[in-house]
Amino acid sequence: MVRLRGGAAAAALVLFVVGAGISGCKKDTTGSAGPQGTAAGGAALTAVDSLTVKGRAPKTGYSRARFGTAWADTDSNKCDTRDDILKRDLKNVKFTGGTCKVVSGVLDPDPYSGKEVTYKRGRSLVDIDHLVALSDAWQKGAKYWDAGKRIALANDPLNLLSVDASTNRSKGDGDTATWLPPNKGYRCTYVAAQVAVKKKYGLWVTDGEKAAMKKVLSECPGQKLPSGGNPTQAPKRFTAN
User: Fold this and answer.
1) How far apart are CA 94 and CA 92, in angstroms?
2) Residue 117: DSSP 8-state
3) What whole-number distance in Å separates Cα of residue 118 and Cα of residue 224?
4) Helix, strand, or coil here: 10?
5) Closest among 18, 45, 43, 46 to 32, alpha carbons compared
6) How many Cα atoms sit within 13 Å of 163 on the Cβ side?
7) How many CB atoms lie within 10 A of CB 39?
8) Tens of pLDDT along 13-50?
């Protein structure tokens, strides 16, 4: 992985360890500084078996508002979550009005497509993706959480990644069984991050999702499970509808 970018606010985010792999899941040398973690979590492939398997619950009742206001400053560093992730993942970052508001930078390369994407505020060429989509989380356990845990998931750096907007829009709320990044060299890293998020928050997976996770990670059995990120409860001052 590339090193962290973008100032002191990102210093609390630890390095993501990328394991070596084969057959399209080789060691990732083309992704941005994505969700952060250490080797302490062990092998991602082994961790898949620790996830609870259930059927997908109905989407009834889901809305983005159930996960709080978008990009809440849950880590209390006085920068919103979106800018924190942009600072972490982009190169050549420029700010306005201090060191929080990112106005430009380069995603080089975009982990999902492998191409270079120039970020300029307001042009919508870069998304901050929830690796585990909030709608997917809702249908696999988050529906039953309190607001603080849902807000934490929505703003956890472990679950967030700067990516090419056009590529990300094809994902929707897909899980590993229904969507993988076109950049095959990033798939092991991507799936390991999803496993890590689901394990950290106690989200379940479907039979098809578990099988898809194991299929990808069997190509890179040394892939480490990332860890870290924010606590699983947001500060009580944050609320959700």
Assistant:
1) 7
2) E
3) 30
4) helix
5) 18
6) 24
7) 13
8) 333 333 333 334 544 433 445 665 444 457 999 999 99
Phi, psi of 88 (to 5 degrees): -70, -40
Q: Is 19 exposed, middle or buried (0-12, 13-18, 19+ CB in 10 A)?
A: buried
Give the separation between CA 77 and CA 89, rounded to whole angstroms: 17
Q: pLDDT per residue over 58-116, tens digit each? A: 999 999 999 999 999 999 999 999 999 999 999 999 999 999 999 999 999 999 999 99
Q: Tokens 């069997």 map to which residue?
A: 218
Rounded to a whole number of angstroms, the distance between the first and last alpha carbons of the chain is 37
CB 141 within 8 A of CB 62: no
Residue 31: both structure tokens together: 């992704």
Q: How would you label 122-161 residue by residue, b for 16+ Cβ within 10 Å and e otherwise?
A: eeeebbbbbbbbbbbbbbbbbbebebbbbbbbbbbbbbbb
By DSSP bridging, strand 101-107 and strand 91-96 are: antiparallel
CB 207 within 8 A of CB 12: no
